[in-house]
Give the backbone structure.
Amino acid sequence: MKNIKMTQEEIIETTKSFLSEEFEVEKSSILPDNNLKDTLDLDSLDYVDLVVVIEENFGIKLTSEDFKEIVTFLDFFNLVESKL
Amino acid sequence: MSRWSGKSKGTVLGYKIFLFLIKTFGVAPAYLLLRFVTFYYYLFAGANRRAILTFYTDTLKYSLKAAKKLTKKNFFIFGQTLVDRHAYLVGKGDTFSHSFNGENYLLEMNEKGKGGILLSAHVGNWETAGNMLKTRVTQKINVLMFDAEVEKIKQYLDSSTGGSRFNVIPIKNDLSHVIKIKNALDNNEFVAMHADRYMPDSKTLNLDFLGRKAKFPVGPFLLASKFEVPVTFVFAIKESNYHYGLTATKPKFEKQSVEQIAKEYVLELENKVKLNPEQWFNYYNFFDDAN
Protein backbone atom coordinates (compact mmCIF):
# COMPACT_ATOMS: atom_id res chain seq x y z
CA MET A 1 0.00 0.00 0.00
CA LYS A 2 1.90 3.08 -1.15
CA ASN A 3 0.89 6.65 -0.47
CA ILE A 4 -2.79 6.47 -1.27
CA LYS A 5 -5.17 8.68 0.65
CA MET A 6 -6.79 6.78 3.50
CA THR A 7 -9.39 7.66 6.05
CA GLN A 8 -8.40 7.44 9.68
CA GLU A 9 -10.56 4.32 10.04
CA GLU A 10 -8.60 2.65 7.27
CA ILE A 11 -5.34 3.75 8.84
CA ILE A 12 -6.43 2.27 12.16
CA GLU A 13 -7.45 -1.03 10.58
CA THR A 14 -4.27 -1.31 8.52
CA THR A 15 -2.14 -0.44 11.54
CA LYS A 16 -3.87 -2.99 13.75
CA SER A 17 -3.38 -5.59 11.11
CA PHE A 18 0.36 -5.24 10.58
CA LEU A 19 1.29 -4.36 14.15
CA SER A 20 -0.57 -7.32 15.60
CA GLU A 21 1.19 -9.60 13.13
CA GLU A 22 4.66 -8.08 13.46
CA PHE A 23 4.70 -7.66 17.23
CA GLU A 24 2.36 -10.54 18.14
CA VAL A 25 -0.20 -8.55 20.13
CA GLU A 26 -3.99 -8.79 20.10
CA LYS A 27 -5.68 -6.33 17.76
CA SER A 28 -8.01 -5.48 20.63
CA SER A 29 -5.06 -4.04 22.61
CA ILE A 30 -4.30 -1.50 19.87
CA LEU A 31 -6.58 1.26 21.10
CA PRO A 32 -6.17 5.00 20.48
CA ASP A 33 -5.44 5.89 24.09
CA ASN A 34 -3.07 3.01 24.78
CA ASN A 35 0.64 3.63 25.04
CA LEU A 36 2.31 2.44 21.82
CA LYS A 37 5.68 1.49 23.30
CA ASP A 38 4.22 -0.38 26.28
CA THR A 39 1.49 -2.16 24.33
CA LEU A 40 3.88 -3.44 21.68
CA ASP A 41 6.59 -4.02 24.29
CA LEU A 42 9.12 -2.24 22.08
CA ASP A 43 12.80 -2.22 22.82
CA SER A 44 15.33 -0.23 20.84
CA LEU A 45 15.85 -2.98 18.26
CA ASP A 46 12.10 -3.38 17.71
CA TYR A 47 12.09 0.18 16.43
CA VAL A 48 14.02 -1.09 13.41
CA ASP A 49 11.12 -3.45 12.62
CA LEU A 50 8.62 -0.67 13.27
CA VAL A 51 10.32 1.67 10.80
CA VAL A 52 10.40 -1.09 8.18
CA VAL A 53 6.73 -2.09 8.52
CA ILE A 54 5.51 1.50 8.52
CA GLU A 55 7.34 2.18 5.26
CA GLU A 56 6.15 -1.10 3.71
CA ASN A 57 2.52 -0.60 4.68
CA PHE A 58 2.04 3.10 4.20
CA GLY A 59 4.87 4.03 1.85
CA ILE A 60 5.77 7.02 3.99
CA LYS A 61 9.16 8.23 5.13
CA LEU A 62 9.59 9.28 8.72
CA THR A 63 11.97 11.83 10.09
CA SER A 64 13.79 11.53 13.39
CA GLU A 65 11.56 14.27 14.78
CA ASP A 66 8.31 12.48 13.95
CA PHE A 67 8.42 9.94 16.72
CA LYS A 68 9.39 12.28 19.52
CA GLU A 69 5.77 13.30 20.06
CA ILE A 70 4.33 9.80 19.69
CA VAL A 71 3.08 8.36 22.95
CA THR A 72 -0.28 6.76 22.17
CA PHE A 73 -1.65 4.93 19.15
CA LEU A 74 -3.81 8.00 18.45
CA ASP A 75 -0.62 10.07 18.09
CA PHE A 76 0.63 7.42 15.70
CA PHE A 77 -2.59 7.38 13.62
CA ASN A 78 -2.47 11.18 13.41
CA LEU A 79 1.15 11.09 12.29
CA VAL A 80 0.40 8.60 9.52
CA GLU A 81 -2.63 10.60 8.40
CA SER A 82 -0.57 13.78 8.21
CA LYS A 83 2.09 12.03 6.12
CA LEU A 84 -0.23 10.42 3.57
CA MET B 1 35.69 -3.10 34.66
CA SER B 2 33.69 -5.90 33.11
CA ARG B 3 32.01 -3.86 30.41
CA TRP B 4 32.77 -0.80 28.42
CA SER B 5 31.76 2.19 30.55
CA GLY B 6 30.98 4.45 27.58
CA LYS B 7 33.38 7.23 28.59
CA SER B 8 36.90 8.03 27.44
CA LYS B 9 39.82 8.96 29.65
CA GLY B 10 41.83 12.19 29.56
CA THR B 11 41.69 15.80 30.67
CA VAL B 12 41.07 19.08 28.86
CA LEU B 13 44.61 20.22 29.73
CA GLY B 14 46.04 17.05 28.20
CA TYR B 15 44.13 17.58 24.98
CA LYS B 16 45.18 21.25 24.89
CA ILE B 17 48.86 20.36 25.17
CA PHE B 18 48.67 17.71 22.46
CA LEU B 19 46.68 19.91 20.08
CA PHE B 20 49.19 22.73 20.58
CA LEU B 21 52.08 20.41 19.77
CA ILE B 22 50.39 18.96 16.69
CA LYS B 23 49.34 22.35 15.35
CA THR B 24 52.68 24.05 16.04
CA PHE B 25 55.34 21.40 15.57
CA GLY B 26 53.57 18.49 13.89
CA VAL B 27 52.91 14.91 14.86
CA ALA B 28 56.46 13.74 15.76
CA PRO B 29 56.84 15.86 18.96
CA ALA B 30 53.36 14.75 20.03
CA TYR B 31 54.49 11.13 19.68
CA LEU B 32 57.52 11.93 21.83
CA LEU B 33 55.37 13.36 24.63
CA LEU B 34 53.09 10.38 24.20
CA ARG B 35 55.91 8.07 25.37
CA PHE B 36 55.67 9.61 28.84
CA VAL B 37 51.88 9.87 28.90
CA THR B 38 51.32 6.26 27.91
CA PHE B 39 53.89 5.11 30.46
CA TYR B 40 51.90 7.00 33.09
CA TYR B 41 48.71 5.26 31.99
CA TYR B 42 50.49 1.93 31.85
CA LEU B 43 51.48 2.38 35.51
CA PHE B 44 48.26 3.82 36.88
CA ALA B 45 45.41 2.57 34.67
CA GLY B 46 45.58 -0.79 36.37
CA ALA B 47 42.19 -2.18 35.36
CA ASN B 48 42.76 -1.34 31.70
CA ARG B 49 46.28 -2.75 31.75
CA ARG B 50 45.15 -5.98 33.38
CA ALA B 51 42.30 -6.39 30.89
CA ILE B 52 44.67 -6.14 27.93
CA LEU B 53 47.35 -8.25 29.57
CA THR B 54 44.82 -10.98 30.32
CA PHE B 55 43.52 -10.80 26.77
CA TYR B 56 47.03 -11.51 25.48
CA THR B 57 47.84 -14.28 27.95
CA ASP B 58 44.49 -16.05 28.32
CA THR B 59 42.95 -15.55 24.89
CA LEU B 60 45.83 -15.12 22.46
CA LYS B 61 48.09 -17.40 24.56
CA TYR B 62 51.15 -15.15 24.71
CA SER B 63 53.72 -15.71 27.45
CA LEU B 64 53.53 -13.22 30.30
CA LYS B 65 56.76 -11.57 29.19
CA ALA B 66 55.56 -11.18 25.60
CA ALA B 67 52.14 -10.02 26.80
CA LYS B 68 53.65 -7.27 28.96
CA LYS B 69 55.71 -6.03 26.05
CA LEU B 70 52.68 -6.11 23.81
CA THR B 71 50.55 -4.27 26.37
CA LYS B 72 53.06 -1.39 26.51
CA LYS B 73 53.06 -1.27 22.73
CA ASN B 74 49.26 -1.35 22.74
CA PHE B 75 49.01 1.67 25.06
CA PHE B 76 51.45 3.64 22.93
CA ILE B 77 49.79 2.83 19.60
CA PHE B 78 46.38 3.65 21.05
CA GLY B 79 47.78 7.04 22.05
CA GLN B 80 49.20 7.45 18.55
CA THR B 81 45.80 6.79 16.99
CA LEU B 82 44.34 9.57 19.16
CA VAL B 83 47.13 11.93 18.10
CA ASP B 84 46.55 10.95 14.46
CA ARG B 85 42.81 11.53 14.80
CA HIS B 86 43.43 15.05 16.06
CA ALA B 87 46.09 15.65 13.43
CA TYR B 88 43.36 15.03 10.83
CA LEU B 89 41.02 17.40 12.62
CA VAL B 90 43.54 20.25 12.57
CA GLY B 91 44.43 19.71 8.90
CA LYS B 92 47.61 17.65 9.27
CA GLY B 93 46.17 14.59 7.58
CA ASP B 94 48.76 14.74 4.81
CA THR B 95 51.32 13.55 7.37
CA PHE B 96 50.03 10.03 6.72
CA SER B 97 50.11 7.73 3.72
CA HIS B 98 47.61 4.94 3.05
CA SER B 99 47.15 1.73 1.14
CA PHE B 100 43.60 0.50 0.54
CA ASN B 101 42.82 -3.14 -0.11
CA GLY B 102 39.17 -3.46 -1.18
CA GLU B 103 38.50 0.12 -2.18
CA ASN B 104 36.89 -1.27 -5.36
CA TYR B 105 34.24 -3.01 -3.23
CA LEU B 106 33.20 0.28 -1.67
CA LEU B 107 33.11 1.99 -5.05
CA GLU B 108 30.91 -0.85 -6.28
CA MET B 109 28.57 -0.41 -3.30
CA ASN B 110 28.36 3.30 -3.98
CA GLU B 111 27.50 2.66 -7.64
CA LYS B 112 24.72 0.19 -6.77
CA GLY B 113 22.84 3.04 -5.10
CA LYS B 114 21.49 1.12 -2.11
CA GLY B 115 23.70 2.73 0.49
CA GLY B 116 25.75 0.46 2.68
CA ILE B 117 26.64 -0.43 6.23
CA LEU B 118 30.32 -0.45 7.14
CA LEU B 119 31.05 -2.50 10.22
CA SER B 120 34.30 -1.99 12.07
CA ALA B 121 35.65 -2.54 15.58
CA HIS B 122 37.91 -0.97 18.17
CA VAL B 123 40.92 -2.32 16.32
CA GLY B 124 43.22 0.10 14.52
CA ASN B 125 41.91 3.55 13.74
CA TRP B 126 38.48 3.89 12.19
CA GLU B 127 38.73 7.70 11.86
CA THR B 128 41.46 7.27 9.29
CA ALA B 129 39.35 4.88 7.25
CA GLY B 130 36.52 7.39 7.35
CA ASN B 131 38.75 10.22 6.15
CA MET B 132 40.00 8.11 3.26
CA LEU B 133 36.50 7.06 2.25
CA LYS B 134 35.36 10.63 2.29
CA THR B 135 38.07 11.74 -0.10
CA ARG B 136 38.24 8.66 -2.34
CA VAL B 137 34.87 6.89 -2.30
CA THR B 138 31.95 9.09 -1.27
CA GLN B 139 31.24 12.31 0.57
CA LYS B 140 28.17 10.76 2.14
CA ILE B 141 29.48 9.06 5.24
CA ASN B 142 27.64 8.84 8.53
CA VAL B 143 29.13 7.47 11.69
CA LEU B 144 26.91 5.98 14.35
CA MET B 145 28.43 6.52 17.79
CA PHE B 146 27.94 6.83 21.48
CA ASP B 147 28.74 10.21 22.93
CA ALA B 148 31.92 8.83 24.43
CA GLU B 149 33.88 11.98 25.22
CA VAL B 150 33.58 13.69 28.55
CA GLU B 151 31.46 16.80 27.91
CA LYS B 152 34.20 19.36 28.75
CA ILE B 153 36.66 17.63 26.42
CA LYS B 154 34.06 17.43 23.66
CA GLN B 155 33.33 21.15 23.95
CA TYR B 156 37.02 21.99 23.83
CA LEU B 157 37.71 19.78 20.82
CA ASP B 158 34.68 21.03 18.91
CA SER B 159 35.68 24.66 19.48
CA SER B 160 39.37 24.19 18.66
CA THR B 161 39.15 21.80 15.72
CA GLY B 162 35.68 22.32 14.25
CA GLY B 163 34.55 18.86 15.35
CA SER B 164 34.16 15.66 13.38
CA ARG B 165 34.49 15.67 9.60
CA PHE B 166 31.69 13.11 9.29
CA ASN B 167 28.02 13.34 9.90
CA VAL B 168 27.68 11.82 13.34
CA ILE B 169 24.48 9.96 14.17
CA PRO B 170 24.36 9.84 17.97
CA ILE B 171 22.79 6.79 19.58
CA LYS B 172 19.75 7.92 21.57
CA ASN B 173 17.25 6.26 23.83
CA ASP B 174 14.44 7.13 21.44
CA LEU B 175 14.38 5.75 17.89
CA SER B 176 15.69 8.88 16.19
CA HIS B 177 18.99 7.24 15.22
CA VAL B 178 17.16 4.32 13.60
CA ILE B 179 15.21 6.68 11.35
CA LYS B 180 18.34 8.70 10.56
CA ILE B 181 20.12 5.50 9.54
CA LYS B 182 17.20 4.37 7.37
CA ASN B 183 16.97 7.74 5.66
CA ALA B 184 20.74 7.90 5.08
CA LEU B 185 20.71 4.44 3.48
CA ASP B 186 17.71 5.38 1.33
CA ASN B 187 19.80 8.35 0.10
CA ASN B 188 22.60 5.95 -0.94
CA GLU B 189 24.82 7.03 1.92
CA PHE B 190 27.22 4.87 3.91
CA VAL B 191 26.64 4.32 7.61
CA ALA B 192 29.66 3.19 9.60
CA MET B 193 29.51 1.69 13.05
CA HIS B 194 31.47 -0.45 15.45
CA ALA B 195 30.02 -3.86 16.17
CA ASP B 196 32.23 -5.11 18.98
CA ARG B 197 30.87 -3.26 22.03
CA TYR B 198 27.49 -3.20 23.66
CA MET B 199 25.90 -1.16 26.39
CA PRO B 200 24.40 -2.80 29.50
CA ASP B 201 20.84 -4.06 28.87
CA SER B 202 21.24 -4.11 25.10
CA LYS B 203 20.53 -7.32 23.18
CA THR B 204 23.55 -9.46 22.40
CA LEU B 205 24.63 -12.52 20.45
CA ASN B 206 26.89 -15.05 22.12
CA LEU B 207 29.48 -16.02 19.52
CA ASP B 208 32.69 -17.99 19.23
CA PHE B 209 35.53 -15.50 19.17
CA LEU B 210 39.19 -16.51 19.39
CA GLY B 211 38.26 -19.86 20.88
CA ARG B 212 36.02 -18.44 23.61
CA LYS B 213 32.46 -17.24 23.88
CA ALA B 214 31.92 -13.49 23.70
CA LYS B 215 28.91 -11.26 23.46
CA PHE B 216 28.41 -8.93 20.53
CA PRO B 217 25.64 -6.35 20.07
CA VAL B 218 22.70 -7.45 17.91
CA GLY B 219 21.94 -3.93 16.71
CA PRO B 220 24.53 -3.42 13.93
CA PHE B 221 23.80 -6.80 12.37
CA LEU B 222 20.06 -6.36 12.70
CA LEU B 223 20.20 -3.00 10.91
CA ALA B 224 22.12 -4.55 8.00
CA SER B 225 19.73 -7.49 7.79
CA LYS B 226 16.41 -5.69 8.20
CA PHE B 227 17.20 -2.75 5.95
CA GLU B 228 18.53 -5.18 3.32
CA VAL B 229 21.56 -3.13 2.38
CA PRO B 230 25.04 -4.34 1.44
CA VAL B 231 27.38 -4.72 4.36
CA THR B 232 31.17 -4.74 4.43
CA PHE B 233 33.76 -4.95 7.20
CA VAL B 234 36.23 -2.09 7.18
CA PHE B 235 39.42 -1.73 9.21
CA ALA B 236 42.31 0.74 9.24
CA ILE B 237 45.45 -0.74 10.76
CA LYS B 238 48.37 1.46 11.74
CA GLU B 239 51.24 -0.24 9.92
CA SER B 240 53.93 2.26 10.85
CA ASN B 241 54.10 5.71 12.45
CA TYR B 242 52.89 7.44 9.31
CA HIS B 243 51.21 4.73 7.27
CA TYR B 244 47.79 3.10 7.49
CA GLY B 245 46.62 -0.05 5.74
CA LEU B 246 42.89 -0.01 5.05
CA THR B 247 40.86 -3.07 4.15
CA ALA B 248 37.26 -3.62 3.12
CA THR B 249 35.72 -7.07 2.60
CA LYS B 250 33.65 -8.06 -0.43
CA PRO B 251 30.11 -6.91 0.32
CA LYS B 252 27.09 -9.21 0.13
CA PHE B 253 24.27 -7.65 -1.85
CA GLU B 254 21.67 -10.31 -1.09
CA LYS B 255 19.72 -10.35 2.17
CA GLN B 256 21.48 -12.17 5.00
CA SER B 257 20.31 -13.17 8.44
CA VAL B 258 21.55 -11.39 11.55
CA GLU B 259 23.46 -14.51 12.58
CA GLN B 260 25.13 -14.91 9.17
CA ILE B 261 26.40 -11.35 9.13
CA ALA B 262 27.56 -11.57 12.75
CA LYS B 263 29.49 -14.81 12.18
CA GLU B 264 31.26 -13.44 9.11
CA TYR B 265 32.08 -10.25 10.99
CA VAL B 266 33.59 -12.19 13.89
CA LEU B 267 35.75 -14.24 11.52
CA GLU B 268 37.12 -11.07 9.97
CA LEU B 269 37.64 -9.51 13.39
CA GLU B 270 39.53 -12.60 14.56
CA ASN B 271 41.74 -12.36 11.53
CA LYS B 272 42.53 -8.70 12.21
CA VAL B 273 43.21 -9.25 15.91
CA LYS B 274 45.51 -12.21 15.28
CA LEU B 275 47.51 -10.22 12.74
CA ASN B 276 47.54 -7.00 14.77
CA PRO B 277 47.17 -7.93 18.45
CA GLU B 278 48.78 -4.67 19.56
CA GLN B 279 45.84 -2.77 18.05
CA TRP B 280 43.09 -4.36 20.10
CA PHE B 281 41.64 -1.35 21.93
CA ASN B 282 38.92 -2.82 24.12
CA TYR B 283 40.21 -2.04 27.60
CA TYR B 284 37.85 -4.22 29.58
CA ASN B 285 37.30 -7.91 30.05
CA PHE B 286 35.75 -8.84 26.73
CA PHE B 287 34.75 -12.32 27.83
CA ASP B 288 33.94 -12.13 31.54
CA ASP B 289 30.17 -12.34 31.44
CA ALA B 290 30.03 -14.67 28.48
CA ASN B 291 31.47 -17.77 30.11
Chain A touches chain B through 18 residues (CB under 8 Å).
